[in-house]
Every structure is written in structure tokens, then in C-alpha cells.
Amino acid sequence: MGIHRLNHAVLYVSDLARSVDFYRDVLGFTLVEMAPDNFRGATFLQAPDSTNDHDLGLFEVGAGAGRSTAGRATVGLYHLAWEVDTLDELAATAERLAAAGALAGTSDHGTTKSLYGQDPDGLEFEVVWLVPADRLDDATLAARKRIGRLDLAAEQQRYGGQTRGGVGISVPA
């Protein structure tokens, strides 16, 4: 089975309108009209610049739903990671997440520069920029074995804020 990319994810949420507002207003997703007329409590969204039919399905389970205990008391998905093209885009996303009170952390994994966010239900996600293949060196590759502090300004200085990430890795060269 040759997998090319993640096509979409489906999340159970407690308040559909609140979740739609978050993914639309903070992360720039747009609504995709594809739910059948008799299918209530679901919305489908597409990420900016995505070529997928939809990237996210949100299914409302109601306000009485408890927060996920995956990783603390149950097995389950920890997070999904969405890739952005440039470090400038990663920095702008960090600002939007911080303004929304949804930035949970940042990390430098050597070959990836990552933000971690939480949606209104506390579901975690990652937004990541990948170092282009032609910029990988021994030190960057070795840094994959640790989790460092992300200094976005220093990374923008090092690689350039508009350098397209993932080239030769997730994007054809």
C-alpha cells in the first residue's frame, strides 16, 4: 500500500459551531458543502491551498461529551500534523494560535520546526515546517534525536522566511 499523504481526518467535537469557528478563524479552513441534507451535526472543511476534497470532518457529539483522555487514561490518537510551506507562514500561525489561547508549545526536532496547538475541545494538532532536502546536513539530521527549543526568528534567519519547506521530501524537487 503506497500512501502519498493524509487525505482527511474526522474529529468528534462537543460544540460544532465553536469548532468550525476555531478551524476557520484561527487556521483558515473553509467550509465545504458536502454533508447530505438529512445528515445533521457534521461539517467538512478544507485547509488553505489544499487539493483534497476536504481535510477535516467535524462530528458533533454534544456538550455533555467529556474531554479526550487518550494518552492519559486510554489509547487513542495523540495528534495530526499539518505541513506549511514557509517559516513565515509558521510564524504567522504561531501568532494566530497564541492570540486564540490555543498555542500549547513549540519544538525544534532538527529536520522539522513544530508548533503544537489545541482546539476548543483540547484535541492536539501540530503545524510543521520541514527543512528542504538540499539543506539537510549532519547536524540537522542528528538533531532528530532530541527535542530542542524552537527559535523561529533564528530559523527564519538561517533558512529564510520564504524558503519553501519539504522540497525533495514531501514536495517534489
Structure description:
The strands form 2 sheets. A 4-stranded mixed β-sheet has the order 1-4-3-2, with helices on one face. Strands 5-8-7-6 form a 4-stranded mixed β-sheet, with helices on one face. It is of the alpha/beta class and 173 residues long. A hairpin with a 5-residue loop joins strand 7 (112-118) and strand 8 (124-130). It is built from 4 helices and 8 strands, in the order E-H-E-E-E-E-H-E-E-E-H-H. The longest helix is centred in the middle third of the chain and has 13 residues, at 87-99. Helix 2 (87-99) packs antiparallel against helix 4 (152-159). The mean pLDDT is 93. It has helices spanning 16-25, 87-99, 138-142, 152-159; strands at residues 9-13, 30-32, 42-46, 56-60, 79-83, 103-108, 112-118, 124-130. The chain is globular.
> Total number of helical segments?
4
Strand order of the largest sheet: 1-4-3-2
Query: What's the count of strands?
Result: 8
Helix content: 10-25%
Low-confidence stretches: none
Q: What is the radius of gyration?
A: 17 Å
The H/E string reads EHEEEEHEEEHH
Mean pLDDT: 93
What is the straight-line distance between the termini?
23 Å
Envelope shape: globular
- Main pleated-sheet profile: 4 strands, mixed
| SS-derived structural category | alpha/beta
Strand content: 15-25%
Summarize the structure.
The chain is α/β, with parallel strands linked by helices.
Write the layout of secondary structure elements.
Layout: E1 9-13, H1 16-25, E2 30-32, E3 42-46, E4 56-60, E5 79-83, H2 87-99, E6 103-108, E7 112-118, E8 124-130, H3 138-142, H4 152-159
Parallel strand pairs: 1-4, 5-8
Antiparallel strand pairs: 2-3, 3-4, 6-7, 7-8
